[in-house]
Amino acid sequence: MRKIGILTGGGDAPGLNAVIRAVTVKAIKDGYEVIGFKYGWAGPMKKDYVPLTLADVEDIHRQGGTILGSSRTNPAEVENGLQVVKDNLEQLGLYALVASGGEDTLGVANKLCKIGARVVGVPKTIDNDISATDYTFGFDTAINRVMEALDRLHTTAKSHQRVIVVEIMGRHSGWMALYGGMAGGAHLILVPEVEFSLRQVYDFVNKRYSEGNTYALIALAEGAKCPELIKEVEKEAPRDAFGHILATKVKRPIAQVLAEKIEEATGKETRHAILGHMQRGGDPSAFDRVLGTRLGFKAMEMVEQGEFGKMAALSGEEIVSVPLEEAVGELKLVDRARYELAKAFFG
Ligand code: F6P
Question: C or N terminus of the chain, fewer CB within 10 Å?
Answer without folding.
Answer: N
